[in-house]
């Protein structure tokens, strides 16, 4: 596994932390990996609204 450093808005990290605290994910890394997997699966399944547009850029 490779290490990736990224910047995420504080509000989003707080929401990820809440998912960890409630036991939905064991840690932040797994929560973020899950989100990346979901995004990739949606792209492969063609479930995004328009080709070339990303629905993941919501802040």
Spatial extent as radius of gyration = 13 Å
Q: Which regions are unreliable across 5 or more consecutive residues at pLDDT < 50?
A: none
Oligomer: single chain
Instruction: Kindly state the number of beta strands.
Output: 0
**What's the tally of helices?**
2
Protein model, in words:
The protein has 59 residues and is mainly alpha-helical. 51% of the residues lie in helices and 0% in strands. The chain contains 2 helices and no strands. It has helices at residues 10-21, 28-45. The longest helix is centred in the middle third of the chain and has 18 residues, at 28-45. The protein is globular. The termini are far apart. The mean pLDDT is 87.
In short:
With about 60 residues, this protein is mainly alpha-helical. Helices cover about 50% and strands about 0% of the residues. The mean pLDDT is about 85.
Question: Features of this protein?
Answer:
2 helices, about 60 residues, mainly alpha
Q: Could you outline the blueprint of secondary structure elements for this entry?
A:
Blueprint: H1 10-21, H2 28-45
């Amino acid at each position: 596994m490779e290490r990736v450093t990224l910047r995420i808005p504080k509000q989003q990290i707080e929401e990820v932390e809440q998912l960890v605290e409630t036991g939905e994910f064991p840690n932040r890394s797994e929560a973020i990996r899950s989100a990346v997997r979901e995004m990739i699966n949606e792209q492969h399944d063609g479930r995004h609204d328009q080709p070339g547009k990303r629905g993941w850029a919501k802040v």
